Amino acid sequence: MSMNLYKPMTILFMFILTFSWVQANNNGEKINQEVNLAIEKFKKDVPGGNTFLKKVKGYLVFPKVYKGGLIIGGEYGKGALRVQNKTKYFYSITSASAGYQLGAQSYSMLIAFASDAALNNFINSNGWEAGVDGSIVISDWGKAKDITSISYEKPIIAFVFGEEGLMAGVSIEGTKFEKIMP
Question: Are the beta carbons of 38 and 63 closer than 8 angstroms?
Fold first, then answer.
């Protein structure tokens, strides 16, 4: 690694380490409470959200994903995988990036698994990575559009909602999802 990248990589490592330490105090009950609130917000804010969730095989909910960057960036969050409306596992989401970026934001994310194969592949993986282990389409639903009228060709669909802060765009390509013990 060149010396020019050493300092930004150190800053990124410290950024991720800080988020990990802050989030380490979350237990399963607290994560579940936050997930419940995020699901209610999804159902309220996304027309057809309630009907859509009843049709999918399972969904992974991250109530708050924190993202920040100044050339080097990262994001982190904790959430729960729900199957038949019950928490099956807890997961973390992490990613790192380099490039033209500046800002900080938080948002909620719901990732729906439309097929049993996609859900089982995700559950059985050890450190699932978006774009490598599976392709996720980020839904562009718009506030007035009922999502039950949208035809999705991919078996994994992500919804981003409740954005706070300012940072251009959300991408989950290369994002790592790992099972955690709360």
Answer: yes
d(CA 115, CA 59): 11
With b for 16 or more beta-carbon neighbours within 10 A and e for fewer, the 89-126 pattern comes to bbbbbbbbbeeebeeebbbbbbbbbbeeebbebbeeee
In angstroms, rounded to a whole number, what is the distance separating the alpha carbons of residues 45 and 39? 10
| Cα–Cα distance for residue pair 33/68, rounded to 1 Å | 25
Whole-number Å distance between alpha carbons of 104 and 55: 34
Q: Report H helices in 73-152.
A: 116-124
Q: What is the pLDDT of residues 33-65, one digit of tens each?
A: 999 999 999 999 888 899 999 999 999 999 999
Strand (E) or helix (H) holding 28? helix 28-45
CB contact at 8 A, 60 and 79? yes
C-alpha closest to that of 73 among 3, 1, 171, 178: 171
Q: Is the pLDDT of residue 151 over 50?
A: yes
Give CA torsion, residues 132, 134, 135, 136, to 10 deg: -120
Instruction: Specify which of 32-36, 47-51, 136-140, 164-168 reaches the highest per-range mean pLDDT.
Output: 32-36
